[in-house]
Specification:
By secondary structure, the chain is an alpha+beta fold. Helices cover 37% and strands 24% of the residues. It folds into 3 domains: 57 residues, Transcription Regulator spoIIAA, CATH 3.30.750.44; 89 residues, PDZ domain (Pdz3 Domain), CATH 2.30.42.10; 204 residues, 2-enoyl-CoA Hydratase, Chain A, domain 1 (Alpha-Beta Complex), CATH 3.90.226.
Length: 420
């Protein structure tokens, strides 16, 4: 009897617990699904998680950052954008960044060859947070204002560069033709300048070529300002035209070329190297893939490459390959030093991500990110490294002398071969 009573009490307690639990579950609201704005944050986290070059994220609590972002109230699209910015900041990579719709569109449009803005090409040195001027596009408002390479952008429209970031600065400088943008910058000599620049459509004209004459020799000058989608095709046409003019040597001018599409730069390298290593790519898994060029070239004669501190990214890859494979002599100043390569990933609402996905190393194993490309022949720095007139460009003169020396060495080699 006593055993039955105890069992009955125990059963009663169990039944009461089940009833209370059922009432709690029935009375509690169902778990809410993520809002579209929250889903955007999760999508951005997932894409960076899958793509970033360092899967350890340099020791930061990357998964915890997603949770912290979702713990904040995300009640609008702008608050989602701010949460993504906050989530990416601890990575410490200025090239891995979130791009709002207008920024993403501006960046993708620039690879097509034309922009509406002031014509400044910008970058960030490793270990720095300041946004520097790589170059001013020829014929642009920035070139007219004589903004010098190496200048530091301090503010745009009164907004601090620390708040804007690299892409924020670029987006703020772009805008409809005819509108004016105020820029505060610090020149390389430390002088502060406050400028009002009128935006206009700037044709990048990424490829230019012409014939040069010096001491009875004929050379070709091929200038590549940025690697856009059309550059390989334009380079092929330019090389054909120059060779129809019977050039004896080629000057490949990559000064103030900030890069652009790496795939475009690799295609140009493929046109100048014959079954030789072009670059080695180290991905997030530590896999090293060496890209070898196809057989045959569009031009195989003597060549000199001109570079300076504004030569970056894809243009450094090309210069490094031509140097390491002993295909060309590199002259000028040490390059910018950007060997981290990004991919652009669109998000559902028109915004996007720029994510560092790989590190590039030259065929000889030089890490571009650490030191850039050091020229075979370092030239004296000039306050005007890209003068409009050939007669004012001492580097062109030095390049033609180098080509002449290559021709003389080639002639001597032919004579020695004939004698033997």
């Amino acid at each position: 009897m006593e055993w039955w009573v105890q069992c009955g009490v125990r059963k009663l307690r169990i039944c009461l617990f089940i009833l209370i639990l059922a009432g709690f579950l029935l009375g509690s609201p169902p778990a809410q699904a993520l809002s579209e704005d929250q889903q955007l944050v999760v999508e951005a986290w997932s894409l960076v998680n899958q793509s970033y070059v360092d899967p350890t994220f340099e020791g930061i609590a990357w998964r915890r950052l997603r949770q912290k972002a979702l713990e904040q109230p995300i009640l609008s699209r702008e608050s989602a954008y701010e949460a993504i910015d906050t989530m990416l900041a601890p990575i410490g990579d200025p090239f891995t960044r979130f791009l709002r719709p207008e920024q993403f569109k501006a960046l993708t449009d620039s690879t097509a060859g034309a922009i509406s803005g002031v014509g400044l090409q910008l970058g960030i040195n490793e270990g720095e947070t300041v946004v520097r001027v790589l170059s001013s596009l020829e014929g642009s408002p920035a070139a007219t204002a004589e903004i010098r390479p190496g200048s530091v952008i301090l503010a745009v429209e009164g907004n601090s560069v620390e708040d804007l970031g690299l892409e924020g600065v670029a987006a703020a400088l772009r805008g409809p033709s005819g509108t004016v943008v105020d820029v505060l910058l610090e020149a390389p000599d430390g002088e502060r300048q406050s400028l009002s620049l009128e935006r206009r459509t700037v044709d990048l004209r990424p490829v230019r070529s012409r014939r040069l004459r010096e001491d009875r020799h004929t050379y070709g000058l091929l200038q590549i300002r940025q690697f856009t989608t059309k550059v390989p095709e334009l380079v092929s046409a330019a090389l054909a035209e120059l060779q129809n003019k019977c050039i004896e040597g080629l000057i490949l001018d990559l000064r103030n070329n900030p890069g652009g599409l790496v795939s475009s730069g690799l295609k140009v390298g493929n046109a100048l190297l014959d079954t030789q290593p072009l670059v080695s790519i180290r991905d997030r898994n530590g896999v090293v893939e060496t890209v070898i060029t196809d057989a045959g070239t569009l031009y195989d004669g003597p060549m000199v490459v001109l570079v300076n501190s504004g030569t970056a990214s894809a243009s450094e890859i090309l210069a490094g390959a031509l140097q390491d494979d002993e295909r060309a002599e590199v002259m000028g100043r040490p390059t910018f030093g950007k060997g981290l390569i990004q991919t652009l990933i669109p998000l559902n609402d028109g915004s996007g991500l720029a994510v560092t996905v790989a590190r590039y190393v030259t065929p000889a194993g030089h890490d571009i990110q650490s030191a850039g490309i050091v020229p075979n022949q370092v030239l004296a720095a000039s306050t005007q490294e890209m003068p409009e007139e050939d007669s004012q460009d001492p580097w062109l003169g030095r390049a033609m002398v180098a080509l002449q020396n290559q021709l003389h060495r080639h002639e001597k080699h032919i004579k020695r071969t004939a004698m033997t």
